[in-house]
Amino acid sequence: MTTTAPGRTARRYLMCEPVHYTVSYEINPWMDRTRFTDSDLAVRQWRTLRDTYLELGHEVDTIEPIPGLPDMVYAANGATVVDGVVYSARFRYAERQPEGPAYQKWFADHGFVTHTANQTNEGEGDLLVVGDVVLAGTGFRTERAAHAEAQELFGRPVVSLELVDPHYYHLDTALAVLSSAADDPQIAYYPPAFSAGSRGVLETMFPDAVVATERDAVALGLNAVSDGANVVVAPGAVDLAAAIRERGYTPIPVDTSELLKGGGGAKCCTLEIRG
Ligand code: ARG
User: Where are the alpha helices (DSSP H) in the chain?
Assistant: First the structure.
């Protein structure tokens, strides 16, 4: 078992301030329209998250929030960027569909060549780069056909994983990439979120993976952001924090409780731009 974290690499992230954040529709089991949401608190928590990345020495770009798109704060869903290639998002639900072109425009305006998706996919919510491969979720949002589209575009093997619990509707709610180092990729995941076959795939590919507990999963602890050494994680994910510390990572608890009401955590708010 690996006992040392492979080490930090500087990252570039894209984020969207939650000034228009609210829960006005329900497209996952965490969302409850009747519950009060505090967009000021969401903004404060989001700024703490952004400042945490800056303090860790990462670069943070921001996209202008658009009124009427309350979920736009979940930037991870906006696209997937690998080796500077941008695969645009194509959202499953009508409420979020305008976010795809909005994020695509941001990338085009910033000099990236972007590829319009033909298949339904929710960006890095379901497409996670681990070393040389891409792990891809399906079952609730992203279509399997999008996994093939991403593989063709990125020229990297894409491994399909079936999600079975509606609470963990995006891959990044059930699996965290701790290290993307090609020679030593490491993940943490919550097995009950996956079909039996997909659990088998993960066990084969990552025999030393950190296995998260139910307590970690319900805190959306798997929705963590790692730079290879520091792992920004929900404070409630105490078992996960202990397990990754043992592996040589530094857990950095950041409270995004207000954004959890929409069904997202730190990772959902963070789109990695891989140059
Ligand atoms: N309310 C959003 C949705 O259901 C939350 C998205 C969370 N993002 C993520 N990367 N898991 O689509």
Answer: 39-55, 99-109, 144-154, 196-205, 214-218, 238-246, 257-260
Atom of ligand 1 nearest to the CA of 172: 11
Q: Is 115 a residue of the active site?
A: no
Query: Ligand 1 mean position to 153 CA, how many Å?
Result: 24
pLDDT at residue 3 in the model: 55
Known catalytic residue: 268?
yes
pLDDT tens, residue by residue, 233-251: 999 999 999 999 999 999 9
Decide whether any atom of ligand 1 lies within 6 Å of the 149 Cβ: no
DSSP-derived 3-state class of residue 9? coil
Residue-wise pLDDT for 45-69, tens only, equals: 999 999 999 999 999 999 999 999 9
Cα 122 to middle of ligand 1, angstroms: 9
Domains of the chain, first to last: 12-272 (3.75.10.10)
- What SS3 state is found at 123? helix
Please report the pLDDT score of residue 5 as a whole number. 82
With a 6 Å cutoff on the Cβ, whether 21 touches ligand 1 is: no
